[in-house]
Model the fold of this input.
Amino acid sequence: MPTGSCFCEKVKYEYSGDPAMKATCHCLACRKISGSSNTLNLLVPKDRFQVTSGTPKEFSKTHESGMELTIFFCDNCGSVISKEGDADAFRGVVIVQAGTLDDVEGLDMGKPGAELYVKHRASWLPEVAGAGQMQEFS
Done:
């Protein structure tokens, strides 16, 4: 069962099974949330995800797409653990931030199947070969 945690390890989680999807995202919100050029996201059905230690703090804001985006993060170290969006594409899933996985081998579970908001991808980043290239979420 894959596990993950924030930087200080106050908030921990686990999920069962394989993610429904693995996608990178270059939207402006993901840039701000990660402090980087993009995020690597694992879409996990809500009924297979659970926080096992700590209580993440949450913050919601309207995303550039118009959906409501909620981030869940550690109130001690600030690490974003997951996100949830109210757009149809994200209903019923937790968007786990892959960088929070405890086992770094978890990042090798196959290439992302989609690359989102490629219109904002940094010009020096190559596209993920074989991944669906989407200008936005749809």
The chain has a mean pLDDT of 94. Residues 3-133 form a domain with the Metal Binding Protein, Guanine Nucleotide Exchange Factor; Chain A fold (CATH 2.170.150.70). The first helix runs from residue 28 to 34. The helical segments are 28-34.
